[in-house]
Amino acid sequence: MPNMSNEKTKMPQQAPDIRNKNFSEVALGYDKKMAMEEAERCLNCKNKPCMNGCPVNVKIPEFIDLVKKGDFEGAYYKIKETSSLPAVCGRVCPQESQCEKYCVRGIKGESVAIGRLERFVADYFMENCKEKQPEIVKKGKKVAVIGAGPASLACAGDLAKAGYDVTIFEAFHKAGGVLVYGIPEFRLPKNIVQAEIDKLKTLDVKIELDTVVGKTIEISELFDDGFEAVFIGTGAGLPSFMNIKGESLNGVYSANEFLTRVNLMKAYKFPEYDTPVYLGKNVAVVGGGNVAMDAARCAKRLGAEKVFIIYRRGEDEMPARLEEIEHAKEEGIIFNLLTNPVEIVGDENGWVTGIKCIKMQLGEPDKSGRRRPVPIKDSEFEIKLQNVIIAIGQTPNPLIKQTTKGLETYEWGGIIADEETGRTSIDGVYAGGDAVTGAATVILAMGAGKKAAKAIDEYLS
Amino acid sequence: MNFKRFEIIKKQVLNEQVTLLEVYAPKVAAKAEPGQFIIFRIDEKGERIPLTIADYNRQTGGVTIIFQQVGATTMKLADMNVGDCLLDFVGPLGTASELEGYKKVAVVGGGLGTAIAYPQAKKLFSLGSEVHIITGFRNKELIILEDECKKVSNRCVVATDDGSNGTKGFVTDVLKSLIEEGNNYDLVIAIGPLVMMKFVSKLTKEYGIKTIVSMNPVMIDGTGMCGGCRITVGGVTKFACVDGPDFDGHLVDFDEAIMRSKVFNKMEQQAKETHICKRLGGTV
Fold first, then answer.
1. Do A278 and B264 touch (CB under 8 A)?
2. Taking the model in full, what pTM does it have?
3. I need a labelling partner for A132 at 20 to 30 A (CA). Which of A177, A328, B115, B186 fits?
C-alpha cells in the first residue's frame, strides 16, 4: 500500500539546545521501519523526474523499490551503479534543489525523502554488509590523482576497479579534502569519510600524504615517473576576502582557516589536541552558503554566546541547503539578512571589537539571476563582537597552474576542462570538481571524477 | 643506510633554547631552495608548524631545521632524538629566494633568524657574490652558526646586545657602520624577529638599498588555503605561504604583522604550561 501522507517520515535528530553544545551528528538517520514506510511514499513514476534532477542520475525509483521490499543491500548496489559516495551524498547533497525538487509527491506536499533514504541504505550497508570485492583485471598502467577530495576519491575508485594502478597525492596529512577539513563532524562524521578511504585502499589505491603537487613534485615529473595519465581534483581552496578595512585585525578568520582548525586539527578538543582556535563571546559569519552555516554552527558549539550570520541578500537567495539554514536557526544562530559589512572595527592593540554594516534592499536581477542587493542610504549600524569569520567563497588554488606549463585556466583561476571528459589543454591530464567549476557541491565533483575516470580509461585503452 | 620516513638523523643542541635537527625527507631535500619552508607535525594530536629550511642535502635526503623552544610543540620537538620519526614533514613550501645577479650583499640574521639567513648567504656566496654576514644575539651563550657563517662570507660580524662576546650593539648599528664605511651593497637580506626586520628595513630605506625580509606568520596548510598567514605588503594583502615568505622589506606593514603574531598568545601559553607540567611528570 503506498503511503499517501503529504509529509516526509520524520528523521530523529538531536534536540537543538543539546546539539548546539556538542559536535556529534545532528541527524540520527532512519531505522528500517521508518525507511520502508518512507519508501512507500514513492509512486515509482514512469518518467522518473527525480533521476534527471540528480547530477549522477542515481536510479532513484529502483533503489527505493528495493528498500520497500526490505532488500537494503540490493538498494545499496543499485545506488553504487552510478554514485561512489552514498553515505556522504545522502548527508550533504542539496536534495531540495536536485532530485527532490522534481519529485511528483512534492507538488501537493513534501517530496519523497530521497536523501534520507540514500543515507539509510548506505549506513545500513556499512553496519551490516561487506562490500563485494570486484574482480579486477590489472592493466599494468599507472595513473596519478592529485588531491584526495570527493572528485579524486570517485575518480581513483573507478580507475582502480578498471584495473589501473592508482596513486593519490594529497597535500594535507589526511585524505578526504573538504570532507575532512571543511564539513564539520556534526554534519558528516569523519568515520564515514574514513570508511570510504579504507575501501579505496582495499582496491590497492595508494595514498601519498604530505605531498604538494606543484611543490614537492610537478606534473611533468609524474609522467617521468611512469604515470600515463593525471587527474587534477585539487578543489577550490583559496579563500576570498572582502577587501574592506579591518580584515587583518586579530579575530578575523577566513572560513577555511576557522573550519580547518576546528575540523581537521580538532581545535574543539584543545588542549587535548594542540591546535588552538580563539573565539570571543560574540561572533559574526559573513556569507550565506553551506560554509557560512557550518562556521556559524561550529562557533556556537565552541561556546560563543551570540553568533550572527551576515548576508547581503535575503533568505530566498541564500545558496546554503535548506536543512542547514533550518538547523542553524533552531540552534540559535541570529540571521542578519540584507546586511552588508562595510568595516571591521578594532581596538588600539589590533583586536576586533565590532563590525559596521549597512542595510540592503533587493533591486533588479544580476548576472546570477538573483536580485542584486543595493545599499540603503544612511542605514549603517555596528554590532559589537570579537570575531568575524569570512565565508564569501573560495577560488581554485593556483599552485598547480603556476608550475604546470601549458595548463590553461580561466582568468578567475578555474582549470579549463571539457565538461564530459575532464580533458584539459595537456594531453593525458584531466581535471574535475571545484578546481574546474569553482566552489560547487560534493556530488558534482564526484560526478566529474567519475566522468574523467571513464575518459582516462578510454584514453589509455 | 636506510632511514625511515621523516626519521631524525642528526640532533645538535646549539644552545639551551635552540636545537638543530636533520630529518630524512628525500623528496623535500630534492627540491628545497633557500628561502623555502616545511610544515611538520609530531603526532596525531599535534599542530602543524612551519619552519624555514636551514639546509638540505640532495645526496643523503636530509633536511635541516633549526628552531627555538617557544611553545608546547617546539618543546616536544626538542625532546625528540636521533632515530625518532616525525609524523609529517611536508615541503618545500613557499617561493625560493631570488639570489642571482647581486655583486655585494649584506645578510643580517637576528637570533634564530641566523639559521634561515645562513642558507641564503651560502647560496649567494656560491653564486659569487661578495657576502657580508651580520648576526646579532642577546648574549654570547646564544650565538649560533658562527663558524658556518664565516665559511660562506667575506666578512662576518657577530654582535651581542650586552657585548659579552666583545662586540656590543644591535645588528642595525653594525649594518649602519658598514654602510658608512663605504660598502655599496646592492641587496640587504634581513631575517629575524619582526622588530629587527622592521628597523633594518627602516635603515636601508634611508640609504635606498633593496631589502628582502623573510616572514614567518601563523599558518596551517602552507598552500594558500587558510589565509591565516596574510600580511599587508605595499597596501595589498599577500599570503606569506605562497607569495612569500620573502618580501620587500620597504613595503611590508610590520606593525600589523607584529600585532597579528599575537593572536594565539594566550592559548599558546596555556598549551605550553600544560606541556611543561606533563614533562615534569604532573597530571593536568
1. yes
2. 0.92
3. A177
